[in-house]
Amino acid sequence: MQPRGSGSSSKLDRNEIEKSRRLQLKDLYSKLASLIPNQPSEEGLPLRDMLKQATKYVVELQQNVEELKQRKAALKGDEGGSKEERLLVLMVRNMGSTLEVNLSTGLDKEFKLHEVLSVLKEEGVEVVSASYTTVGNQIFYTIHAQLIRAVLLQL
Fold this sequence. Notes:
- This protein has helices at about 5-35, 45-75, 115-120, 150-155, and strands spanning about 90-95, 100-105, 125-135, 140-145.
- By secondary structure, it is an alpha+beta fold.
- It has four helices and four strands, in the order ααββαββα.
């Protein structure tokens, strides 16, 4: 026969274990939410919605990895395409109110960065920074831009 009170002790242990589990899950949900870009600022986003956003973001990352692998192979000449076909590569990433534009071109290709910057300005985008790096016979341009409020209202 069990001593009186031992049942309540195990119930307290189970309650403490459950409380610990809930706190651990809450901490993990917070960490997950911090890793997902463009999270709404409101607290208490339903778990279902957060998991949908996380899944969508992971799929986007997988697609980006595949695109980068293809780009790398193209730049190395592994795809069998002619040199002319690989001279200009453009990728635009929309990150909410900001854009990241990546361009790569060959050194022997005549390319005017100011024309790209003009097109961005005409489309209602304010360029925050632009930089380039030369690697081998390729030039890689990176442009960070902010969408102007009027453009955001149209979205």
